[in-house]
Amino acid sequence: MTDPLALFRAMAETVPAYQDFLREQGVDPGAVRTLGQIPLMTKQNYHLRYGLERRCPGGSLRGADMVAVSSGSSGRPTVWPRSIRDELVVAERFEQVLVGGFRAGERSTLAVICFALGNWVGGMYTTAACRHLAAQGHPITVATPGNDVAEILRVVGELGPLFDQVVLLGYPPFVKNVIDAGSGWAPYQIKLVLAGEVFSEQWRDLVAARAGITDPVTDVAALYGTADAGVLGNETPLSVRIRRFLAERPDVATPLFGDARLPTLVQYDPGARFFEAVGSTLAFTADGGVPMVRYHIADEGGVLGRAELVGLCREHGFDPGDGPDLPFVYLFGRSLFTVSFFGANVYPENVTVGLERPHIADRVTGRFVLRSVEDADRDRRLALAVELAPDVPAGADLAAEVAASVRAELLRLNSEFAHYVPADYQLPVVELRPAGDPEFFPPGVKHRYTRPS
């Protein structure tokens, strides 16, 4: 198991930036005996204050053979040094999904990387992890079309028939766009590996059906990853079964998570990453090119023991079955992606479910931008820009259906919204935009679901 105290002592001896950080925090490394005595690190108090080399062991980048760049969704992009050792730790998470879940150890598998390539962390890191699995002898072949829909479809069409199965790896809304742009997916035995966003169980079922996937529990897996430390955890069939149960039982889920939203629920290996809950947010400890001890990220979530969570399910009449003997971590995403409206926090996850209802889903892509804006009378309104599916015309009837569906889900899922927002203001103002609209939905970039007022 990752030992935070051992890593703390190593960093205090070898990492110049951490030595300065501890001095500023008034911490004597020799006096530290417990985890609680170690100060929390953040991007603001550590990474943005010290130069890149000084955050590496020995004050040098010599231990890194590659760099990755974060997407910068919460600020400017950040450079993260990497080594083969870092990739091998992440490859174990992909192995649990691809080999343990998708049986890629016995089925010839085409892994199609649909993340953006270049220095951005998703594409190159995922490619490296999949190639490590291939080097171990698993019959996995990697194709890297990146986030080019036409090229992805060409690669799958040409190479897919040569393999037992095809795995698409990418951000959820982009992978959905790929599936919607193609057709005849069933013969390829599609599997999905998704990262970067929370999605609902309705979304999982919808996309699985369109991709010809018969078992969304085993064949669709989400990863919990950060640019800071790669992949931290992954969905397993056990975690998916539990999440699907909780999706139908908000009376169980809300007290468990302390929130009406349904978080991503993954399992993680404490031998590689040490998680702890700090209030309602997460911190982790991980060795790497830039080692981190008690790194406090902006993700809202918590940690649950396996016995605790499985036992809770059984108490409520659901046996989730077998699965890895690993703990769980859950996360809602970053709080900066909420919109405050009449004092209620409105979450993109709630809006998403409204767009995934059967009478709506075929006509929109699932992408949207949520804002709180002032109307002509200076009253606040919840504004929702929604991306239409290709070749679907905008119309008042569809806008009204979208607004009604979103309002229904907000009232059902978000108790703050139901209690704080006056009835006359609960219906969002919906603006339908064409696919790829340059103002709200520019192609080729990571989408943001909220904007400041």
Notes on the protein architecture:
With 453 residues, this protein is an alpha/beta fold. The protein has 16 helices and 18 strands. The chain has a six-stranded mixed β-sheet, sandwiched between helices. Strands 9-13-12-11-10 form a five-stranded antiparallel β-sheet. A hairpin with a 2-residue loop joins strand 10 and strand 11 (281-286). The longest helix has 18 residues, at 84-101. The chain starts with a helix and ends in a 20-residue tail after the last strand. 44% of the residues are buried.
Q: What value does the average pLDDT take? A: 90
Radius of gyration: 22 Å
Strand order of the largest sheet: 4-3-5-6-7-8
Number of strands: 18
Q: Extract low-pLDDT stretches.
A: none
Task: Estimate nothing, just give the exact number of structural domains.
Answer: 2
Principal-axes shape call: globular
Q: How many separate helices?
A: 16
Oligomeric assembly:
single chain
Task: Calculate the terminal CA-CA distance, rounded to whole Å.
Answer: 45 Å
- What would the CATH topology of the largest domain be? Rossmann fold
Mind telling me which CATH architecture of the largest domain this is? Answer: 3-Layer(aba) Sandwich
Percent in helix: 25-40%
**CATH homologous group name of the largest domain:** ANL, N-terminal domain
Biggest sheet features: 6 strands, mixed
